[in-house]
Amino acid sequence: MGFVLKESILAGIIGGIIAAILAFCANQFLVPFPQTILDNSLGNGISGFVSGLLSGFIGVYLVLRKTAKNP
């Protein structure tokens, strides 16, 4: 149980860091200065979706990698 908790926390931290960097880059360079509230909402929604997708992918990947090494 401790192993799973430790790996979950590690995956969350790594995914969070990557998500923060990705969201920052998306909001800074792809949609730098939105003209309307709708554009701002769409930019934040898209970057949030991609960030969450990456976090989930990294979490699952790390768990699968660790369980493959430690059957």
Can you put this structure into words, describing what you see?
- This protein is an all-alpha fold and 71 residues long.
- It has one domain.
- The chain is 87% helix and 0% strand.
- The longest helix has 33 residues, at 37-69.
- It is rod-shaped, with a radius of gyration of 16 Å.
- The two termini are 15 Å apart.
- The model has no long low-confidence stretch (mean pLDDT 74).
Provide the fold topology.
Blueprint: H1 2-30, H2 37-69
Number of domains: 1
* Rg for CA atoms: 16 Å
Record field, number of beta strands: 0
Number of helices: 2
List segments where confidence is low: pLDDT < 50 over at least 5 consecutive residues. Answer: none
Query: What is the global morphology?
Result: rod-shaped
Percent of residues in β-strands:
under 5%
- What is the terminal-to-terminal distance? 15 Å
Keywords:
71 residues; mainly alpha; 2 helices
Question: What's the quick description here?
Answer:
This protein is mainly alpha-helical. The protein has helices at 2-30, 37-69.
